[in-house]
């Protein structure tokens, strides 16, 4: 007898958990299960839409594979990150030339150029420079260097 009541209590607890997860307001078992089934279908549709969005984003990335650039302001200088899913021969030189034109000294850098391109650099302003540079100026200079590099590699192909 205890076993049957224990099973019934466990089933009731699981149904209540299912009811709360699926935001069901149903009171009987059948309605809770029907609501859960509808909820699962909604989740499947959301997953399908997300997969379509991911596929669309990847397609647009292959059509326009320019690297992503972020620039953060540090106490003395900037943290610059440049990421690309593909290898970018010659890009490092273009970015370093942009740093030089801005008067940024590379204080520390990590670069990977094998299957993808990753650059993480800490740049400090040149002490002799009278004007201060902000992060947006650095980002625009790096983006322009990437654009120039991209155009020069397109012409070579």
From TrEMBL:
Residues 69-147 form the Plant bHLH transcription factor ACT-like domain. Its main location: nucleus. One of its GO terms (cellular component) is nucleus. Keywords: Coiled coil, DNA-binding, Nucleus, Transcription, Transcription regulation. Pfam families: bHLH-TF_ACT-like_plant. It is found in: Nucleus. GO terms for biological process: regulation of primary metabolic process. InterPro entries: bHLH-TF_ACT-like_plant, HLH_DNA-bd_sf, TF_AMS/ICE1/BHLH6-like. Residues 33-60 form a coiled coil. GO terms for molecular function: protein dimerization activity. The keyword DNA-binding applies. This is Transcription factor bHLH61 isoform 1.
């Amino acid at each position: 007898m205890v076993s049957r009541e224990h099973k019934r209590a466990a089933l009731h607890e699981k149904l209540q958990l299912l009811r709360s997860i699926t935001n069901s307001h149903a009171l009987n078992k059948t309605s809770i299960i029907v609501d859960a089934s509808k909820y699962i279908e909604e989740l499947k549709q959301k997953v399908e839409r997300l997969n379509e969005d991911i596929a669309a984003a990847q397609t647009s990335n292959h059509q326009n594979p320019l690297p992503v650039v972020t620039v953060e302001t540090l106490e003395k200088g900037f943290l610059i990150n440049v990421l690309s899913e593909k290898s970018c021969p010659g890009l490092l030189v273009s970015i370093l030339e942009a740093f030089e034109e801005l008067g940024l000294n590379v204080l520390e850098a990590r670069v990977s150029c094998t299957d993808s391109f990753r650059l993480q650099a800490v740049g400090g302003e040149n002490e002799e420079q009278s004007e201060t540079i902000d992060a947006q100026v650095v980002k625009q200079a790096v983006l322009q260097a990437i654009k120039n590099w991209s155009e020069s590699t397109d012409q070579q192909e």
